[in-house]
Amino acid sequence: MQDTYTYPIGKPGQKWQEQERKEWYEQTTIKREYQKEVVPKISALSDQFDIEQYGALSYDTERFPLFAIKSKNWDSNKPTVLVTGGVHGYETSGVHGAIKFAETQANKYTPYFNIVIAPCVSPWGYEVINRWNPNAVDPNRSFYEGTPAEESANLRALVASLPQEVLVHIDLHETTDSDETEFRPALAARDGIEYIEGMIPDGFYTVGDTENPQPEFQAAIIESVAKVTHIAPADEEGKIIGSDVTQHGVINYPMKKLGLCGGVTNCKYGTTTEVYPDSAKVTDEECNDAQVAAILGALDYVLAKTA
Fold this sequence. Notes:
Distance between the termini: 51 Å
Cofactor: Zn(2+)
Keywords: Hydrolase, Metal-binding, Zinc
CATH architecture: 3-Layer(aba) Sandwich
Pfam family, one: AstE_AspA_cat
Organism: Vibrio gallaecicus
Strand content: 15-25%
Helix content: 25-40%
């Protein structure tokens, strides 16, 4: 196993400055189009939901408007559910799983919840299939006041605009092989630290909040997703991506401390999903279905608890 790696941009041990960030940006390329693959699917839902533009990315405001899919007839007596996808734009099933939930399942839950879906928080990242934004900033480490990531700032503003607190937040992500082949090496180079190779788990898992783990809620999500795809096992040290496995398929992170999207609300029930799309055992559509199953498991659990 390779345990060190020299990234082609920057000098080992030195943090990137503006020149290195520019060099990194200039080597990115557009690989797919948000306006063709995502926006039409959102627009097609306008008969069933209110489609709200909650911002636009300054990199190109016409190309990168930000949309939320919201329940019609908002009712302040109902609890609110937030579903987010595409915070890391390269994590494809987060985007299309969120939209598929809106297309196929969300209306079953609107009698009980106000639902808000932000399916593609980072559309530039979606197009270049990258974890960062054009400034080499990770939106999913940037959910805090004064954030340098406008993707994060726009979603924070959307959450702040909601009439009441969010009860449930499901943030849809993927863990991919490219995390180790590209994104973690780039992170180490950007921050001037040594890259130590990690292990990508084969399967789905969730990340709960260290400060509010809600283990029964996480278990319900795992049970639901297990009907669609396989759950990631712990490694030989009882860990997944370096964190202790607290139960089958579940680890915890301190969401707010790390500036994660999972900490953007003060929800009682929160989870970050992690689908593994590079497994030989799954198709792209099964990855989307796993994201939908995670949402269903979460909402069914909360309905049962509040019935």
